[in-house]
Amino acid sequence: MKTAVLACLGGLLLLGGIALLVLPGPGFVLVAAGLAILATQFDWAKRPLEYAKVKAEQGVHEVARSWWRAAFAVACAVALLVVGVLGLLGVDLPLVNRMSAVLLLLSGIALIGTVVYARVRGPRADPARHRDAGTTVATAPPD
User: Where do transmembrane segments lie in this chain (predicted)?
Assistant: First the structure.
């Protein structure tokens, strides 16, 4: 019973996240959440979850490393927030209803949070040097 419930919940989050990759909303977050739930019960979900973690780490590293990327991400977040607020205020915008306006606001907030996290954390060692698409690379012990 527990496996069936977690499979349904993880599957719904995964499918919703895939849909939100092309629709306004936090698609990647839902895909990762769905994979995380599925990975608790199914081994096949662990590999794409690890891949998603590596890609997220690489994205955070890029934002932390480049002032221009951080500025562009903040500009995109502000645009998401503005369109979301306008949609909630009832301004007639194409393809924006109340639900998509809320999702745009959530996406903008998540993006700003990611940029703040990346910039506060600062550039660390390049995650691609430690992991390559989900596989751990052995490193030599310190001298």
Answer: 66-89, 101-120
Distance CA 20, CA 121 (A): 28
Six-digit token pair at 84?
Answer: 């979301």
102-143 confidence digits (pLDDT tens): 988 988 998 899 899 888 887 665 555 545 444 444 444 454
Model-level pTM? 0.64
Cβ atoms of 102 and 84 closer than 8 Å:
yes
C-alpha 106/C-alpha 36 separation (Å) is 20
Nearest-angstrom CA–CA distance, 42 and 38: 6
Give the H/E segment covering residue 124.
none
Tokens in use for 8?
């349904």
